[in-house]
Amino acid sequence: MKNALQVTTSLLLIVLFLFACGRSGNGDTTAPAIQTVKMHMSQGKYYDIYKKLQDKLKAEENIILDIQIVPDDQYYNLIQTQIAASDVPDIITENAPTQYEEVDAMKNMVDLSNEPWVRRLSNPELLKATDGKIYARPISSSSFYAAAYYNKKIFADLGLSDPTTYAGFLEILETIKTKGNGITPIYMSNKDTWTTQVFMTAGLPVLLGDKAQETWDKLLTNQLKWTEVPEFETVLNLYLDLYEKGYVNQDHTAATFNDAKAALAEGRTAIIYNGEWTVGDLVTKYNMDPDDIGAFVIPFGDRDLMATGSFVEGWLIPKDAKNIDGAKKVLDLLSQPAYMNPYFAEHPGSPGFIDVNGGEVAPAVKALEQKYIKGNKYIPEMNGPMSYASILFNENLWRPYVNMAAGEKTPEQVIESWQKKYTEYMKHKKQPGF
Predict the structure, then answer these.
(1) CA-CA distance, 37 to 296, in Å (whole number)?
(2) Is-contact 142 350, C-beta < 8 A?
(3) Would you tell me which of 7, 86, 146, 327 could form a disulfide with 202, CB atoms 3.0–4.6 Å apart?
């Protein structure tokens, strides 16, 4: 009887276990185990909305998206070091496709071409690498309207209007300097080197105009040297001129992009020169009324032409990531309207997916799109066509720009050092012509 009781008890426990397993596999509400997906994101790309999306992932999907926010001036070196050491997070953020070369995406990143969200992309061709594959899941379909975003109240108080010539732009800065009661005419955030380079990456192609594509082609094949592009020296001198005339904040080498946006919202500066994402932050993070934000294109060479990007922010998965499946699931979930609609509600723009609502775009950005994009008055910024050498940009071009602004280098020295590094790299990569 004792043995029979033991057998009966054992059978009962087995039945209960199988019943529980059956329920778990057939609609049981038992939550799956929590999994963690680690992600690194540069500070300039992190918005408060991500906290809400993280909470939603955890509550609904049992996924902890652990985002490490890295200062902009440290992000590039950190990612490069981690890739070299095969010690990477599950997701990284880079501009795609312009920074594919920088992280050697074809070697180091997971091919995402067959992921379910690809068929919903608004602009799939933009994301393809030279091998035709997609290595990044985007947020937007297009990005970067290079413009002077300004505080309209300051402009109204000083009787200023959008310039039509470069001299007119300088007159605006001079008026703010002399009559603005201490307001900084234009704010530079050179601690974040990527913001420093905006003036050059936008200004140079506008100065080149119809010669731009020919210039890039010749530079890439060694038929032309950077020291032989007079417009490059011109744009560097224009940039340096802003500092020498006292139009820029004195703490520019220590200032961050967040400092710049705060200064504009608080009326301590009149202008920030950057991309349209500036407006989203001013509205959501710094509580600035969209109607108080204006924008104009700096007329380099007196040309009414806007530099635009041939890239978008992309989320990539390193091949050495520890949780590739979890990372793929996060990329898919955060492409869905349930996640992207709230994002664009706070940061309106052009969604990367056809079924996502882009939100209410600020008047200043709408005006730029209407006049320059729809009016076909735009030109690709320098970083896009020169993306083959993007791995060099941060340390060998953007940082020397900062050094020049600090009075440590001349424009000629910046160009000469860049030419040397550029040639060495292209020879190393066995680029035709070098």
Answers:
(1) 41
(2) yes
(3) 146
